[in-house]
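Hi V.,

You were right to ask for the full record rather than a summary. Here it is.
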Amino acid sequence: MIILTKERCSKMNPLSNRDGRLLFGGLLLMLLMFFNSNSYAITGATGVCLGNTTSLSDPSSGGVWSSSNAVVATVSTSGVVTGVSVGTVTISYVVASVTETIVVTVNPNPSGIGGASSVCNGSSITLSDFTAGGTWSGTAGVSVTGGTTNTTTVTGGTAGANTVTYSLPTGCYATYAVAVNALPTSILGTLGVCTTGSTFLSDATTGGTWSISPTGTATVSPSGSVYGVSAGTATVKYTGTNTCIITAVVTVSTTPSSITNNSAICPAGSVTLSDATSGGTWTSSNLSVGTIDPSAGTVTGIAAGTTGITYTTGGGCSVTAIVTVNASPNAGTLLGSGTVCTGSTTTLSNAITGGVWSSTSPAIGSVSTSGVVRGLTVGTTTISYTVTNVCGSVAATTVMTVGLAASAGTITGNAPVCAGSVLVLSDATAGGVWSASGAAGTVDASGNVTGISGGTTTIYYTVTNSCGSASAMAIVTVNPFTAGT
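Predicted structure:
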């Protein structure tokens, strides 16, 4: 500060007091103008992004705002500066003949973010901006990596709309809308299939499409049916309508080859099955018909019928054969009498058909193909009914007794007898019983005929055994008694 005194002024300048006062006032005004022109009372940001605005203010009211270059930036009457082109510009505020200024820089924005505009949940896309030196950020639904390079990786998180921002050190930035699409729901179904089989897969997210690779291992239909082709693994994909994909790995196992050496067996008999595919396990579907050794494949018959024999290898793949267990022969039971007389027949029967009749002693008793037994001579013979099938033969038997038919022989000693006299009759067959018919005579147990009155009487000799009765007959004439004769 310069202090002028009257004394010094008068010595230095021979001017009058009036002139000195004028000189002092002029210097003071110049000093004030100098200090005012270099004091920045304007407040606000000294930088603005191209196309954006920033507000300036001044504590003095009533002033007028202006821009030194409207091509670079404009300023409104309220002090709002709008960046028009990259560069610097002086913004002035004039109030009461006092001009205040501030230099404002218009900074460039990033060149613009490029890349895919959507990403699936859990997947990533790459975004970039030609302007280097910026920093990447994103809203909560995405994960952004990339540091300060002009390229970043964006990973989808929560489904929905998100914004990725690329900011320069000047504060200028660019934004980019990224949609995070939801994945289809989990693939449902059995993820194992045999080379000759299929499995059905599904997804609760509708409208998608199925694909699989490699197709040399498995194929998939539009509805999600997977068909095994060769042993191995294949990746099945379900692509939603929003192009997001969920995958699952399907294991294809080899189906065993056909079961060999299968043949019918009998109860208690056995057969050993085989399969060219090794390492499997054998099972029987009907243990009451046939059992099987799980490792050796030997089937043992239990009862007549059929059972499914299954051979299962790794991955649950299997092949089945039907094993038949034939019935053991059944000869049933013989029905009919166990005795027959010589010269007579009796019929035996059996509810089981197809058997064959035979006699161990056909000279004693023969039997026909229909079971008719004929007694030939006294004795016993075994009659058999034999049923034969693939499981062997079995016979039902009965001992047949052939008895002698009853015979009364011939009555001898027959002659007339006088009334009151006795006639002795006889028969060579023992054990018979004598009887008489008619009033002319009687006969006792020994065959003695007593004449009673003139006429005839019939004498019988009856022999009875298990085969029945037989009688011999004689007619005896009784002469009447004549007095004096």
